[in-house]
Amino acid sequence: MAARLKAGWIVVLFALTSVSTASADGPTDNNPAKVRPVPPKGITLSPADEHELMKGAAALRTEIRDLAALLRSTPALLDLLPDIEIYEKAVRYAVEYDEIFASADVVAAKELLKEGLLRASHLRFGKAPWTTATGLVVRGYRSKIDGSVQPYGLVIPAGFVPAGGQRYRLDFWWHGRGATLSEVNFLRQRRTSAGAFTPPGAIVVHPYGRYCNANKFAGEIDTLECLDHVRRHYPIDDSRVVARGFSMGGAACWQFAVHYPTLFCAAAPGAGFSETPEFLKVFQKEEVDAVWYEQKLWHWYNATDSARNLFNLPTVAYSGEVDSQKQAADAMAKALKAEGIELTHLIGPKTAHSYEPAAKAELNRRIDAIVEKGRDPLPAEIRFATYTLRYNQRGWITVDGLDKHWDKATVNASLQPATGCVLIQAEGATALTVRFPPGSVTTPMMRRFAFAPDEKPSDPLPLTSDRSLTAHFQRAGKKWRQTEAPAPDGLAKRPGLQGPIDDAFLDAFVMVAPTGKPLSEKAGKWATAEMARAVEHWRKQFRGDARVLKDADVSADDIAANNLVLWGDPKSNAVLARIADKLPIKWTKEGVAVGNKTYDVATHVPLLIYPNPLNPRKYVVINSGFTFREYDYLNNARQVPKLPDYAVVDLTTPPGTRYAGKIVRAGFFGEKWELLRDDGK
C-alpha cells in the first residue's frame, strides 16, 4: 500500500554519507564530447602539507612491512593487518593521485596517519582494542578480486560483548553518490558520523563499495566480502540481516534485494534508481538510444526485471513526495503489481531528497517488526526470476542451467501438503537443484517431487539420517528427470562462468601484458593504450591496483587462481598464442574471423570473454577491462555493461568516452559457449 503520512512536512537533514545533491547530475552531463572528470581534480597542496603526508605514509608503510614479518607465525594477528593498511592506502591514494579535494581533507589525512600508527603500535604487542570497541569503528579486509585492502565502517552498539553468546542484528547501509568520496573522506565520515539509522542493539555496517558505482560489479562483491569479514569477527544473527540505503544507496538496496532476497530478512530502499532506461529519461532527461545487446544487459541490474524475487523478502520503500527519485519506487511498484504484489511505499509529504521525520519513524517501526520475526530459513513457497546464472539461488532452489542467457527464467516452488510433494514449475531453466539443509526434512512430502500441477508425484527419495536432502534435476525436452550431477558435463555456461565481459572483474583477475611484436602496428598501439587505460580506470572507479604481469611471467599458479585478461594478439602475447586455436573467434595474420565474416587485421581487434582453455574453471578475457567508460561515470544508472560476450572493434574510429572504437559486431555466445548467428540472438 502507499501510505501518505499526515504528520508535519518538516524535513530532517542528516548525514546521508556522501550524498551529493541531485543538481550534480542532469542534462549538462548528456554530452559525450564534454565529460567532467570523476573523481574530480583535487586542490594544490602546500609543500609542507605534501611533505608531511608523504613522510607519514612512508613511516606507516614501514610499520606495516615490519608487522607483516613479525606476525608471520601468528595468523590471527596477521589477519588484522588490513585494519592498519586502510589508513596508509587512503593517504597514499589521496596524495599520489591528486585526490585531496579540500583543506579539511588534509586535516583528516593527518588524523588517519596517527590512527594507523596507533593501531600498529598496539598490534606490535599483540593487542587490537578496536576489534572489541563500541561506537564508531573502521575496519578493512583484503579483497579476493585484486588483493587490495578495502575499508568499511561499523557502528557497534553500547554493551556489545564479543564472546557473550548473543547474536546481533546486522543492518547494511549503502551510501549515496559523492564524486569526492575518496578513502580519506569515507574514513573521516565513518569515524565521526553514525549515519541515518542506528537501531538499538544492532550492528550497522557501512560498505565503501569501492567508491561510487552504486555497489555494482566489484562494488557488489565489496558488500559480500564485507559481510564475510564481519561474520568472522562479530557474532551476527544471520536471520536478522537488513538491507538499507538512500539515493545511490537506495539503488544498491533495490539490486541487493532482488538478487539476494534470502540473504536478508527485510529491505528498506529509499530514493535512488531501480532500472536504467526510464530513470535516465526522467532524472537525466537523456534520450536513451541503446543497441540490442545493451538493452539485453540492462537485465543484470534492472531491479524491476527481477521484482518477482521480493515475494521472499519483506520490503518497505520510502520516497519524498517531490523527489524526482521517487520514480525508482514507482517503477518497482508497477513491476511488483504485475507479479501480484503491492509495494508498501511510505511517502514523506512535501519532502524532496531526504527522510521526513514521521515517515522515518514509521519506516523504523515496520522494519523493526519484520526483524523481530527474523528471516524464514525454509520458506514454504519460493518465487524466483533470473536472467543470468550469476544470480541463480533462492532459498532451497538453485538454477544450474538456462535455455538462453538474458531471457527471463522463472521458477515457482512450493511444499504441497494436499498432494504430499514439492511442486516445481519452471520456465526458461534447464537444470535445477533442491537443497534442504540438515534437520529440515521432517515429512515425506519433502522427498517427493512433481514438475506440473497435474503430474503424479515421484516416489520419495531415501531418508537421510541427518534429515537433509540434495536432489538434482535436468530437463530433456519438456520432461524433468533426476540426475546425479547438477548440470551436464562439457563446456557450458555455469554459475560464475556465464559472461558477459564485465563478469570477469567480479573475481580474482590478472592483466597480462604482451612482450612480442604485434600482427598490426595500429592494433598493437591500441592494445597498449587500452591496457594502460584499463589499469588507470580500475584504480579510479574501483579503488584497487590491478595486478599486471608480462606474458612470459604468467605461472601455472596464476592460471589456476585468476581470470586472465590478455592484451595484444596471438603474435605479441605468448599466453594468447597458446590458446588462440581453441577460441571461437580466430585471429591470424589473415584477419579476424567471426563465423563466415573476416575483418581486416590491420584495423580490427576482437574483444571477448571465454572459459580459459588452460583452466576452464576460470575466464580468459581478450583486450578489455570493464566496459563502461567516462561518459557513464556521470550517472550511476549508466554504469551497466556496454558489451556482451564478444565484440569486434574498428580502430579507424578512435576510442572515446563511450566505446573503445567503433563496434562493428557484437553478440553473446550460446549456452555451450558456441558462436551463434551474426546478431547473436
TrEMBL record:
Keywords from the named record: Signal
Name of protein: Peptidase S9 prolyl oligopeptidase catalytic domain-containing protein
GO molecular function: serine-type peptidase activity
Keyword set includes Transmembrane: no
UniProt-listed GO biological process terms: proteolysis
Species annotation: Fimbriiglobus ruber
Signal sequence interval, chain numbering: 1-24
Annotated Peptidase S9 prolyl oligopeptidase catalytic domain residues: 222-366
Domain of life: Bacteria
